[in-house]
Design brief:
Blueprint (H helix, E strand, L loop, with lengths): L1 E6 L4 E8 L1 E10 L5 H5 L7 E5 L3 E2 L18 E3 L2 E2 L1 H10 L3 E3 L3 H11 L2 E8 L4 H9 L11 H4 L5 E3 L11 E6 L4 H8 L4 E6 L4 H7 L3 E4 L10 H10 L5 E4 L1 H9 L4 E17 L5 E12 L7 E6 L5 E6 L4 E4 L14 H8 L13
Parallel strand pairs: 3-4, 4-6, 5-7, 6-8, 11-12, 11-13, 13-14, 14-19
Antiparallel strand pairs: 1-2, 1-9, 2-8, 3-9, 10-12, 15-16, 15-17, 17-18, 18-19
Helix pairs in contact: 8-9
Length: about 350
């Protein structure tokens, strides 16, 4: 199949087509050398075009038990080489894919110029003009303000905790902004019952669950688009312990007086080093985000930072019972250095928190 990738700035790259279709989106890259199934089914990649920097994708097949959700989320996939197994999977999913591209060169472009818009055309007889037309359609487009609707559950789903877990009397209300399945699995494995709620639920919906812990999940795009989740944090902080992962950290920070900002090319991979401010211990982490907390505000303490760029990786408030992480402690794919995050978070339910922060 013919294939072309048109890049913001005017360059058009010819490729080999592996799964047909035309599309457009923000071109990003991951440095992960394994876990392609988990990455491709991670809802945080919604509306993006994912480039794999590792040269061979698919060398151990495709197994559904490794999926993080029920579908592939990137709009398209770019690689140096895709195996037939992955190409067939993406074709079945209706996701365009190309390979035989110098991904080292492409990743260098993204690192130097930042994440960029691109247009992709794959199929018999497609031309550069088809890819350029997709890129042209990106102009004037803003990020999808209701992107949460594309990745969240429509109705509440209850997951019962495993018998004999340390927290088998704990109820967690997880706000699904695009949650990875392994986050739910990590909580359930410790005995907690998890009510997965839509991203736009109301205060009354959460109160009906009567949770011991409010958890804001990861998700795609700009955290400013998740106003309902931000309002929940503002309402329940100090009354119910709070936790957040990835986009969840950003939402919590915004609700408690902090700010967020878009990064040049984000953190996406399984080898991001994070340093604990108090102990100086460094752990390797899995990450997938294009936004970060800029100013955490006066309420939250920065407890962990990224070794490479000093961006906040952990925010805590012992008084209010808040723990958040920018990275993915549940990994999948990636190292398991920080799995104790889930024990720390569930441990908040054994402690009392101070009254909610008074409005200024």
């Amino acid at each position: 199949m013919d294939a072309y990738v048109a890049l913001e700035g005017g360059r058009v790259v010819e490729a080999r087509g592996r799964s047909p279709g035309t599309t457009r989106g923000e071109l990003v890259f991951t440095t992960a050398y394994t876990g392609y199934e988990e990455s491709l089914t991670d809802p945080s990649y919604e509306e993006q075009v994912l480039t794999f920097s590792y040269p061979l994708i698919g060398n151990y097949g495709v197994r559904e038990e490794r999926f993080e959700s029920d579908r592939v989320h990137p709009r398209a996939v770019v690689a140096r080489e895709l195996t037939d197994d992955v190409a067939e999977w993406l074709t079945d999913e209706g996701v365009p894919a190309v390979d035989h591209i110098d991904t080292r060169d492409l990743v260098t472009d993204i690192r130097e110029g930042g994440a960029m818009q691109c247009g992709i055309a794959v199929g018999e007889g497609v031309t550069e003009a088809d890819a350029l037309a997709e890129l042209e359609a990106c102009k004037g487009m803003s990020e999808h303000e209701d992107i949460g609707a594309q990745v969240s559950v429509d109705d509440a789903v209850v997951h019962e905790g495993e018998a004999g877990g340390a927290y088998d009397d704990t109820d967690v209300a997880l706000i699904d902004c695009g949650a990875k399945g392994s986050i739910v699995d990590s909580l359930v494995a410790r005995g907690a019952d998890v009510d997965v709620l839509p991203y736009d639920v109301t205060e009354a919906d959460v109160e009906a669950v009567d949770p011991d812990l409010l958890f804001i999940s990861n998700g795609p795009g700009d955290p400013a688009n998740f106003e309902a989740a931000e309002e929940l944090v503002d309402t329940f902080v100090g009354e119910v312990p709070l936790a957040g992962i990835c986009l969840g950290q950003q939402v919590v920070a915004r609700a408690l007086g902090g700010t967020t900002e878009k990064m040049d090319f984000g953190h996406r991979g399984v080898n991001q080093p994070v340093r604990d401010v108090e102990t100086d211990r460094v752990v390797m982490t899995t990450q997938n985000h294009g936004y970060t907390v800029g100013d955490p505000g006066d309420i939250l303490e920065v407890t962990q930072v990224n070794v490479n760029d000093d961006t906040p990786e952990g925010l805590d408030s012992e008084e209010l019972g808040v723990i958040t992480r920018q990275y993915h402690p549940e990994a999948n794919p990636g190292p398991n250095d920080s799995l104790d995050f889930f024990d720390d978070v569930l441990g908040l339910t054994d402690q009392s928190v101070e009254p909610a922060v008074a409005d200024d």
